[in-house]
Every structure is written in C-alpha cells, then in structure tokens.
Design a protein that fits this description.
HATPase_C_sf; five-stranded antiparallel sheet; 14 helices; single chain; alpha+beta; membrane
Length: about 600
C-alpha cells in the first residue's frame, strides 16, 4: 500500500478520485432531494387527475352503480377510493386488501375533510391508516378528498388514498439507481485516472521492473518502447542489453551443460582439483568413490583421497606433466590418469580420471582359475585314457580279463569326462540365464520324500541310516521345476552319503520358515572347516581330500545347485562343524493358497 501512495500513479489517482468523489456526493444529494420532491408532486397530481376523472364520470353518467366499473379502471395500482354522498357515511368504496372498514371509518371521521361536503375545495392530507396487507400494523397514506356531484341536490365527496410505501419503494429504487450510477462513475473515474497516469509513468515503471528481472537472471525480459522520445530510446537500449546478456549466458550454459552431460554419462570417475588441491568438480561415480574412501582410508592431512592419489596430484601440480598409474585402493584396482589444467600460461589445477579395473582383474583371475581347474580335472582322466589305450595297443594285458578291465577303466574315465563337460555346459547356461525352467505346482512333502527314498538302497549298502522328517503341512505346495530340484537333492544327498562314514546318519528335514519351505540335508560326517564354508558353492571347490573317502566328484555340483535354487527365487547355504557333520539348507517360496 505504501508503494502506491509513494508513486506518481497513486498520488494522481488519489487526487482525481477525491475531486470526482466530492462532485458526485454533492450531485447525488441534490438529485435525491429533487427526485423525492418530484415524486411527491407527481403522486399528488396523479391522485387529483384520478379524482377529477371520477367526478366527470359521475357528472356524465349520474348513476353511481353504473360508474363503478369505469372507476376501477381509472384508479391506478395500489390506489383505493371511497365515495360518500353525506358526511361520515360511505356510499360506495373500492378497497383491495384487509382493514377496509377501519380505514373508511378513520377517513370519514377526519374533521379536515368535512368542509369538502360544503365547498368545492379539494383537500390533500398525509394520514396514518391500517395496513392493507398485515393486521395490527399502521402505515402512512396520502389521502385526497375531492367534491363530487352525486345528484341534483346532493353534494358528495370522493376520497382517493394510496400507501406511501409505494412512494418509498419507488424512491428506494430511484436511490439505488442513483448509487449504482455513482459507483459506475467511481469505477470509470478510477479507470481513466490510472489510464492517464500510466501513460505518463508506465515506461519508467516497466524499465524499473525489467531491471529487477535482469538482476534475477531473467534475460527474456523486454521493455516496450511506446514513444520515440528519450524514454523510448532508453527502452530500446535496455532491450539490446538484455539480448546481449542472454546470448552470452546461453553460450556459457551450453558449454556447461555439455561438460556436465559428458561427465555424468561417463562410467569413469572424474575429479577436478584446484591449485590449492581442493575438489572443484566431480561426477557421480567420483562422488560415490569419495564417499567410500572417507573414513576408510587413514590420512593425517584429512584428505578425502588415498595417499597414493595425493602424491600423484602433488607431482602433477609441481612438475606440470601428465602421469598414469594403476593402483590398488581399498581392495579395488584403478587405472588413474592425472593431467594438468592451464589458465593462459599458468597451471590452475588438475583433472584425474579413474577407470575401475576391479571387474577386469576378477574376470582375469576367474579365467585363470577356470583354466587351471579344468586342466587339473581333465588331466587325470586324459592321462588314464592315454595310458590304458596305449597298453591295449601294445598288448600289455596278458589275459582277456585284464584287457576287459582296462577297457572298463577307459569307459568310466570317458563317462567322467562327459559328466564334467555336461556340468560345465549346464553351469554356463544357468549363469547366463538361458536355462529354461518348466515349473508346475507340486506338493513339497511328497516330492522331497520320494527323492530321499531313491537313496535308501545305496544307504543300506554303505551302512548309513537315511531318514526323512517333516513338520510341514501335507497340503503345502510350491511352483517349481521338479527335475531341476531333484538334481539339487540328488547332489546334496549324494555328497552327504559320500562324506559320511559307515554307521553314520543322513537326515532330510522339511519345515516352514515364514513364507518359505526350508529343506535341509544333514549328515554326521567329518564336516567342513569354517573358513571353507563361503567357498563351497564355487565351481571346482573341494575341501580336504580326506573327506571324499576316495569318491571324488567334478566339483561343479554345488555351484549348479546354487544357481538352480536362485533361479527359483530361493536361497541356499551351508552350516558345518568339523567332526560333527554338515547341513546344506535351501529355501523355496511357498505358493499362497
């Protein structure tokens, strides 16, 4: 509000408004007084005209009864009449509404009207009479008494009366119209006052607002030049300045956005350093690395970088040359490149690019381990195949039984090689996600019990007690590929029996754990050392050779089992204690009934 009063527009508007308001007030008061008097005079003239017309009707027709129909048409709305041939008594009357008798009685007894019966004078008087619409209520009426000739020797009077409520309503409507006109005039005055003032101050005000917008960074702001004088020329210069600023800022923003997009989309971590070794800019991978390093790497200077990188940064800033190295930081491998940044001729900082080589190192190690494991696993059967096949070719076997035994060994070793290749292919398909599962809804108790009982005869031959227990509801079911789960159970039970000595026990137990079926294969074998438990599901894992009891496998069974269970949305893990036994446990999600 203070801004309006302190502006040229506000002062000019207030001056014009006060002037016009004073004029309108004087004109309204005078007009209302004039309209009130004019309305009163008009009502009296109307009543006198109606009375004169009624008198002429009676004079022309003579008979009062025949004249009543014409009199009703003559009387205006809300106007009533009383015809009295003698004082204090009404001969005929026309009254619309209630309280007619009381009204006639008061009018006829009014002393001021008695002289009308004796003279030709017309009397008009304002009186308080009963209301025509409500009982026990008085209203103001204007009553006109006019002489009338009702017979040759009879001098009568006609009384015409009308409620002043009609006059008040008419005056009220007139007043409303006057006030509405005054309000419209006020609005028009305000509009034209602002129109006139803005024509004077609008260009300057627009330039002021435009300058504020430019200060906020809105360079699209333009000021309209409405004239060719100095103010118009100033507006033109202002717009040119805004366009130039916008162009330069857009160029800067484009370069900044391009750089930001490149940095954000890079998989490598990029960190820009100032000359004082503070970090100026970093992309999301770099920020993630810095957060990992903070608190994990000991640094006496409270640097967020490892000491090796700090030394590289100091070298670049000191000698102004690029440096590349591969470092191991917090268990991860990075190929790091530091390059100097120049400002004109002096160095103003450095940029570091870190390429994470951890996955490449892991894959390289896996490749080397895989080649070593496969070579180790294939060396024995290949050597045996070569040795026995050469023996057969050289006719080393003296008897037919010895040659048959050599052929049997060659056959078994070839089968072992086939199983190894098949397991490798299955594991590769599972890990790549190309192995298709044929799922059906199966009741768990019956399926696990059937898979367990397949090994009952083998258990008896090896002197091992094999049992099955369940606390799961017989109706509990899940959706799975039965053949693949049977492959898991076969591997786990076979491992348990191979690692359990004669007289031991293998227990298959089924129970419910939240929304999963928990299946565990427990043996009383020699157990697995705790430090080896986290590696049992890796390919080609074998613990102590003594645990195999001379019955070694390919080393891929548990890796395949782990992938099958994970493909079903489950989980598999192992618990063991050396000398007490081992438990392999896997979870399968139950189907909601």
């Amino acid at each position: 509000m203070n801004r309006i009063w302190n502006s040229v527009v506000g002062k000019l508007w207030l001056t014009i408004l006060l002037l016009v308001s004073f004029v309108l007030f004087i004109v309204t008061v005078l007009l209302l007084e004039f309209l009130g008097n004019y309305h009163s005079e008009t009502v009296e003239d109307t009543l006198q005209q109606e009375a004169a017309t009624i008198a002429r009707v009676f004079n022309d027709y003579g008979e009062v009864t025949n004249s009543l129909t014409i009199i009703e048409d003559i009387l205006g709305p809300d106007t009533n009449a009383i015809i009295a041939e003698v004082p204090f008594e009404s001969t005929y009357y026309i009254h619309e509404g209630i309280n007619g008798e009381k009204t006639r009685e008061i009018i006829l007894k009014e002393p001021d009207f008695q002289k009308v019966f004796e003279t030709d004078e017309t009397v008009t008087k304002e009186m308080l009479l009963p209301s025509m619409t409500e009982n026990n209520m008085m209203e103001s009426y204007i009553v006109l008494a006019s002489p009338i000739q009702t017979g040759e020797q009879v001098h009568g009077t006609v009384f015409i009366y009308q409620s002043l409520e009609v006059m008040d309503q008419t005056a009220g409507r007139t007043t409303n119209i006057v006030f509405l006109s005054a309000f419209i005039a006020f609005l028009l005055t305000t509009f034209f006052a602002f129109f006139l003032s803005t024509r004077i101050t609008l260009p300057l005000r627009n330039m002021r607002e435009g300058a504020f917008e430019l200060a906020k960074g809105n360079f699209d702001t333009k000021v309209r030049a409405t004239s060719s004088d100095e103010i118009g020329q100033l507006a033109t210069a202002f717009n040119q300045m805004g366009r130039q600023l916008k162009h330069h800022v857009e160029v800067i923003n484009q370069e900044k956005e391009q750089l930001s997009s490149i940095l954000t989309s890079m998989a490598d971590a990029v960190i820009t350093f100032n000359q004082d070794r503070t970090i100026l800019l970093s992309n999301p991978p770099a920020e993630k690395l810095i957060q990992q390093w903070v608190g994990k790497i000991s640094n006496t200077d409270n640097e967020p970088l490892p000491p090796e990188m700090v030394h590289m940064l100091e070298h670049v800033l000191s000698f102004e040359e690029e440096i590349e190295e591969e470092l191991e930081i917090d268990g991860a491998y990075y190929a790091i490149t530091f390059s100097p940044l120049y400002s004109k001729k002096s160095i103003r900082g450095a940029v570091a690019v870190l390429h994470n080589m951890t996955e490449q190192h892991r894959l390289e190690k896996l490749r080397e381990d895989f080649i070593a494991n496969v070579s180790h696993e294939l060396r024995t059967p290949i050597a045996m195949l070569q040795g026995y096949s050469e023996a057969i070719l050289d006719d080393v076997g003296a008897t037919e039984e010895e040659r048959r035994e050599m052929t049997k060994i060659i056959y078994e070793e070839s089968q072992r090689m086939g199983r190894l290749v098949t397991d490798l292919l299955n594991l590769a398909r599972l890990e790549s996600g190309h192995m298709r599962l044929y799922k059906n809804v199966v009741q768990i108790n019956g399926m696990i019990e059937r898979m367990t009982m397949k090994f009952s005869q083998v258990a008896k031959e090896n002197g091992i007690y094999l049992s099955f227990e369940t606390s799961l509801d017989d109706w509990a079911a899940t959706e799975l590929d039965e053949d693949r789960v049977e492959q898991v159970m076969t591997n786990l039970i076979d491992n348990a029996m191979r690692h359990t000595p004669q007289g031991g026990q293998v227990l298959v137990n089924v129970e419910q754990e939240q929304g999963y079926a928990k299946i565990s294969v427990n043996d009383t074998g020699v157990g697995i050392p705790e430090e080896d438990l986290e590696y049992v599901f890796e390919r080609f894992y074998k613990a102590d050779k003594a645990r195999t009891l001379g019955k070694g496998g390919t080393g891929l069974g548990l890796a395949i089992a782990s992938n099958i269970i994970k493909a079903h949305g489950g989980e598999i893990y192992a618990k063991s204690k050396v000398g007490a036994g081992t438990s392999f446990i896997f979870l399968l999600p139950l189907k909601k009934m």
